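Supplementary Text 2. Reproducibility record for the structural model of the 249-residue chain.

All settings were left at their defaults, and a single model was retained for analysis rather than an ensemble. We include the record here because the model underlies the residue-level annotations in Supplementary Table 4.
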Amino acid sequence: MNQKDRALKISKRKGEGGARRALRRVTGWIGNDETPTRIAQAQRDEQLPITTGRRIAFLGAHGGAGATSLLVASAGYLAQARGGSVTVAGLRSTSDLAWFLGENYHQRGLRLQQTPLLQARESIGEISRSQQVLLVDCDSHVNDDELSMLMPHVIVIVGRRTVQGIEKVENIREALGDKHGATIRLLRETPESGLGKPRGGIQLGDLVVIPQDQHLAGDSHVRIANISEPSRVAIEELGALMMQLAVSR
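Retained model, structure tokens:
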């Protein structure tokens, strides 16, 4: 590449929006030989001792972001690492959660809060007090009053790994700030992302990327035993990050 071509390439990059630069940044990958080490490290962090009542909210940045299926997968790996004591709840509805959980989820160390939190007689404090970890599905919309009621320690903002998806995630992150808890920006790889699929699971900076996986597409119950190794690495590391932030709040 000559100096003119290099200057043109740099000029084009400088003119990119933040979302497009983020898309280009997260195309790295790790070798398969690193996978066992990363999973083992993630599981150690997933087992961090915490006080009861740690609340983590999952919020879709747009429709079809995949927040509910990723919540259930994250809950499954957390319960596996922690030996149970993980509860999932819906802010307005539990039907999608029940679908993704399938049958016999209690045998996997998971508990479903049967009543949506906005309809429950008990306060969020009473509901979460007896649970180590409570993961809340907020679907794709939540307001300040609802977040004040939830008092989440961590908010996971989920979007597709497209330019529009990243922009929506960034807009929500900017609007939330840190007033309702620590935030994690989570991107889900989809066929329409239009970029090479990350291999082995990646996390660069504060962007967490979940590689494309048909078992997270919403067509069937989420079974972590069926999830591919690259996606498992990313979701286990997401769980580790959630626990690190929950402990620090």
